[in-house]
Amino acid sequence: MKNNNFIIFFCFSLAFISCTIKGNFKGLYSYYDSTKSERPELLISLEDSTSVCEMKQTNIPKIYIINGNQLKNCLNLNLKSLIYIWGPKCSSKICVPLEILQHDCYIKGIDLYIVAEYYDTELMELKYDINRPIFGIDIKYYKSSLTSKYLSKFIYDITGKIEESDNRFFYFENGLFLKSYNTIDLVP
What we know:
Blueprint (H helix, E strand, L loop, with lengths): L1 H21 L9 H7 L4 E3 L17 E4 L1 H8 L4 E7 L11 H11 L2 E6 L4 H4 L9 E4 L1 H4 L4 H13 L9 E5 L2 E6 L7
Helix pairs in contact: 3-7
């Protein structure tokens, strides 16, 4: 039994080290402060009264810092809406390139809102062919820089439910949360 625990610990350690060395291991923390210090003009804080509903993508990438309630107010303006929790460094099969996701949502008649799971200067300063800007979760509003804490509170604010899954796609009709999915293919 001890030998099995050692093997599991050793394999996890190797995986962690290899991801860290490659620079792909992100997601435990927000990285808001480092992104803000590297590119302060990239992150835009909004007043609570500012509507994010009609924001369009611009030629210069900007990440608008929001809370779940600000975004939820927009969802009842659309027949169908999808919120995608984007992990910038994610490379698994549950992560979709933003342009492909935007195209799929266009075909399905769904309004897409992309919300970054955490901050990543390199990938956030790229220009993506998407309709709306990328939104970042307001860690000050949620009083935590731990991804699991602020993300679960954000998801609760938009859905009204505690989601125990790792789903990244949150589907709404007429502002009502219907279901979360782990792939765009399952979204109606």
